């Protein structure tokens, strides 16, 4: 037993001589690293976890969120390593100062959530307080680090260039793999969660609702299609549904009925008789879709050829 106590005392003296005793900076950098990793993970899950995103601003684009989360993960890993403590401490203070300003801006707008933690709603006032605490702590504590900068500037430049190239490549790849329509490209944004569709502005463009249709036929991006926007609460839509089916059958064109909301709230599955060559689909309910209905849209190879009201 005495031998074990002696080993512990020797280890403590060794750590003291090496200057590796616990320090407030160590606790701060590990805590902030965990916070950044959690925030990055929640935002990434919300954006790339299968949910379709309607971007109300450039800051809600998937490629922007990928860049932000990549930066947060990179900074978190940097904090964990403990390298270049003086530099990362000032970087941390500056970054969280920007975060605090953004949270204060969201709070002044009356937003219910800052959006910092993905789908988890956190009041901007709380995140402003948290960011302010991190800034104050980063300026108050003194870093403990024996790591020096690379002696050769070429080494540092190569590391920065390589990291930047990987980041830019990831952003470009994300923008191609996960394209996101801006709200104004779909129509007019009303508040945070309402989109007033304006199909007349889609002529000559790729049909912008393709990413938001659940259960769409895979062949819709090839050949000629007739797409009809309908609202379950629109009596005129139900009255003209058969006419659209007969028109599509006569022209030999597949018909896709796109409901702005779930049609099951009006009619049950057992009452539905969908003709062969006709597909029913509903827009994802991440926002409230508004617009004039019914509207017939002709597609050719996924692009809008004409719109008929």
- Helix content percent band: 40-55%
Tally of discrete structural domains: 2
Round the Cα radius of gyration to an integer and report it.
28 Å
Number of E strands: 9
- Order of strands across the main sheet: 3-6-5-4-8-9
> Pairing-aware structural class of the strands and helices?
alpha/beta
Tally the helices. Answer: 8
Strand content: 5-15%
Q: In sequence order, what are the helices and strands, one letter per element? A: HHHHHHHEEEEHEEEEE
What form results from the Cα inertia axes? elongated
Average pLDDT figure:
75
> How does the major sheet shape up?
6 strands, mixed
User: Residue ranges: pLDDT <50 for 5 or more in a row?
Assistant: 1-5, 7-20
Distance between the termini: 89 Å
Topology:
Elements: H1 2-18, H2 24-48, H3 62-81, H4 85-108, H5 124-140, H6 153-177, H7 183-186, E1 187-189, E2 194-197, E3 213-214, E4 224-230, H8 235-251, E5 255-259, E6 278-283, E7 288-290, E8 295-300, E9 303-308
Helix pairs in contact: 2-3, 3-6, 4-5
Care to give the gist of this entry?
With 309 residues, the chain is an alpha/beta fold. The chain has helices at 2-18, 24-48, 62-81, 85-108, 124-140, 153-177, 183-186, 235-251, and strands at 187-189, 194-197, 213-214, 224-230, 255-259, 278-283, 288-290, 295-300, 303-308.
């Amino acid at each position: 037993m005495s031998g074990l106590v002696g080993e512990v005392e020797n280890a403590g003296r060794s750590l003291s001589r090496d200057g590796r005793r616990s320090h407030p900076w160590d606790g701060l950098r590990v805590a902030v690293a965990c916070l950044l990793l959690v925030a990055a993970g929640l935002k990434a899950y919300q954006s790339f976890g299968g949910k379709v995103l309607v971007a109300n601003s450039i800051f809600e684009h998937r490629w922007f969120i990928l860049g932000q989360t990549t930066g947060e993960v990179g900074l978190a890993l940097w904090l964990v390593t403990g390298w270049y403590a003086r530099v990362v401490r000032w970087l941390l203070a500056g970054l969280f100062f920007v975060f605090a300003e953004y949270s204060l801006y969201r709070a002044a707008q009356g937003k219910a959530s800052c959006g910092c933690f993905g789908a988890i709603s956190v009041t901007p006032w709380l995140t402003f307080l948290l960011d302010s605490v991190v800034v104050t702590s980063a300026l108050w504590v003194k870093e403990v680090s024996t790591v020096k900068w690379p002696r050769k500037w070429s080494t540092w430049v190569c590391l920065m260039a390589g990291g930047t190239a990987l980041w830019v490549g990831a952003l470009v790849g994300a923008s191609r793999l996960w394209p996101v329509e801006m709200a104004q490209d779909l129509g007019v944004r009303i508040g945070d969660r309402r989109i007033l569709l304006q199909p007349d502005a889609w002529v000559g463009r790729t049909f912008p609702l393709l990413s938001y249709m659940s259960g769409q036929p895979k062949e819709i991006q090839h050949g000629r299609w007739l797409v009809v926007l309908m609202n379950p609460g629109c009596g005129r839509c139900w009255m003209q549904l058969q006419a659209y089916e007969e028109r599509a059958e006569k022209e030999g064109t597949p018909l896709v009925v796109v409901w702005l909301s779930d049609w099951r709230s009006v009619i049950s599955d057992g009452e539905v008789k969908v003709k062969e060559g006709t597909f029913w689909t509903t827009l994802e309910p991440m926002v409230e879709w508004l617009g004039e209905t019914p509207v017939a849209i002709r597609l050719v190879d996924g692009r809008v050829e004409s719109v008929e009201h």
